[in-house]
């Protein structure tokens, strides 16, 4: 597969590794299925971004936490259903925490 021109070789390598890591966490190790829920803690980095994106695309209910209001807002933009401040109690139990 050709490297996208807007990404460096290093960025391209990181992108695929990040997605593979998130996929494995959600579906191989986590065994999550559509309709289940996941909590993504400490959103803002590459793996947490991939977790939110993949989980939402797979039909999971996505909750996310961060201390940063800006990062919580971004999590909503990329697909989280609800966001919370780190340490805040969730209103429901989730099927997995990442």
Describe this protein's structure.
Helix 2 links the parallel strand 1 and strand 2. 44% of the residues lie in helices and 16% in strands. The protein has helices at residues 9-29, 46-57, 69-78; strands spanning 37-40, 61-66, 82-85, 96-97. The longest helix is centred in the N-terminal third of the chain and has 21 residues, at 9-29. A four-stranded parallel beta sheet has the order 3-2-1-4, covered by helices on one side. It is globular. The protein is α/β, with parallel strands linked by helices. The mean pLDDT is 95. It has three helices and four strands; from the N terminus they run H-E-H-E-H-E-E. Helix 1 crosses helix 2 (46-57). It starts with 8 loop residues before the first helix and ends with a strand.
Uncertain ranges: none
Straight-line N-to-C gap: 30 Å
Q: Which quaternary structure do these chains form? A: single chain
Largest beta-sheet characterization: 4 strands, parallel
Structural class: alpha/beta
Please count the beta strands (DSSP E, at least 2 residues each): 4
Please tell me how large the radius of gyration is: 14 Å
Strand arrangement within the widest β-sheet reads 3-2-1-4
Instruction: Give the averaged pLDDT, no decimals.
Output: 95
Write down the secondary-structure element order. Answer: HEHEHEE
Number of helices: 3
Question: What's the overall geometry?
Answer: globular
Percentage beta strand: 15-25%
Range of helix content: 40-55%
């Amino acid at each position: 597969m050709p490297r996208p021109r807007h990404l460096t070789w290093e960025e391209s390598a990181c992108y695929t590794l990040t997605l593979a890591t998130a996929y494995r966490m959600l579906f191989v190790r986590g065994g999550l299925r559509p309709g289940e829920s996941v909590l993504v803690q400490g959103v803002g980095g590459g793996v947490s971004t991939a977790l939110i994106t993949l989980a939402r695309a797979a039909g999971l209910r996505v909750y996310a936490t961060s201390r940063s209001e800006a990062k919580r807002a971004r999590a909503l933009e990329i697909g989280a259903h609800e966001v919370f401040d780190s340490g805040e109690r969730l209103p429901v139990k989730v099927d997995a925490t990442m």
